[in-house]
Amino acid sequence: MKKKILYTILILIVIGGACAFYGYSVMNTGFNIDKTVYLYIDEKRDYETLKREVIDSAKVGNISNFELLVSVLDYKESIKSGRYAVTPEMNIYDLIKNLRSGKQTPVKLKFNNIRTKEDLAERISDQLMISKDILLNALDDPDQCQKLGFNTETVVAMFIPNTYEFYWDVSLSTFLERMNKEYTKFWNTERLAKAKEINLTPAEVSTLASIVEEECMFTDEYPKVAGLYLNRLRVGQELQADPTVKFAVGDFSLRRILNKHTEVNSPYNTYRRTGLPPGPIRIPSIKGIDSVLNYSKHDYFYMCAKDDFSGYHNFASNYADHLRNRAKYTRALDARGIR
Q: Which end of the chain lies in a sparser environment, N or C, as judged by fewer CB atoms within 10 Å?
């Protein structure tokens, strides 16, 4: 009888050990990757789509083991959206635990060198779950913009190009609130004081900076060009900035601005209207904004691209000198057949 009990205990131990070993082997199923990959779960929270990513992107060692553990841990009932990292040293238990708890890996959101709202919305949607159309609709909504302290023309000034950390599935409202806070943080006491000195609001500084950046190929010219435009604003002279005309006609590829372009009826055409246009013609960089705030003081009112096509400009304090500079550049354009 004792032997029988002993045999039974031994058998149970063996079975238990076998089960424990099996369970351990299932939980420790790994991924055939040599670098971190990311799984994305959108608002649909579709398990089949996730499973396909686990196979194709994470290259799970055994999908049956993954599904078994998903069932044991009842994960399908608690799917959370987000961006989840899968590292080479992880196993399926580690991953499912993170998926269940919503332990995401943040996104380092970056945007720079952006011209239009459409470009901005596309760049953001490429990095976050927010769709391009939803963000674009918000930026074109007067009420939404007003809540943020802007209008539909100036709202792009709220986006200060930098690197920001977000969760991939951040909501639109949370995203816009965060960008608004970053804008307020950027416009500190020192910058606000400098803007006041040149009699511009922060949005107007961004608008001028956007023109300066479009006008210049090289950043070392930013302060000088900013000073020129501020000179014009001070005396009420039209800015006559070619980039604003390109924006008005919707063609940034123009290499030569003709009379037909400068005659376009648009609030962004600074050949026909004095003062700044209604809003930025691109999203200016921090360097561009600070170049306006720390502009170069000089007596230049005119500039023209150099005829050597170096990307730099010739500057003039009077119209006669400007006409000579412009004639040289026009001859250079004609010689190259640029119309």
A: N
Q: Are residues 179 and 195 in the same domain?
A: no
The chain-wide mean pLDDT, for the chain, equals: 91
Q: 3-class DSSP state for residue 307?
A: coil
Do 198 and 226 share a domain, yes or no?
Answer: yes
Tokens, residue 133: 């159309």
- Phi and psi dihedrals of 268, rounded to 5? -90, -5
What does the radius of gyration of the chain's CA atoms come to, in whole angstroms?
30
DSSP-derived secondary structure letter, 204: H
Query: What percentage of the chain's residues is helix, strand, coil (to nearest 5)?
Result: 55, 10, 40
Residues 177 and 269 in one domain: no
Give the structural domain span for 93. 2-101
- What per-residue confidence (pLDDT) applies to 339? 67
Distance separating alpha carbons of residues 50 and 84, to the nearest angstrom? 11
**pTM summary value:** 0.87
Q: Which residues pair with 4 in a beta bridge?
A: none
Domain-embedded: residue 90: yes
Secondary structure class of 38 (helix, strand, coil) = strand
Any domain includes 226: yes
pLDDT confidence tier of residue 15, bands split at 50, 70 and 90: very low
Residues 126 and 63 occupy one common structural domain = no
Enter the DSSP assignment of 273: S
**Burial grade of 56 (CB within 10 A; 0-12, 13-18, 19 or more):** exposed
Is there a domain that residue 30 lies in?
A: yes
Boundary (domain end) residue, out of 131, 165, 185: 185
Q: Please list, in sequence order, all residues whose beta carbon lies within 8 angstroms of the beta carbon of residue 267, skipping any fewer than 6 positions away.
A: 273, 277, 278
Which residue's entry shows tokens 């686990």? 54
Q: How many domains does the chain have?
A: 3
Number of Cβ within a 10 Å radius of residue 169: 20
- Per-residue pLDDT, averaged over 35-57, amounts to 95
Domain membership flag for residue 58 = yes
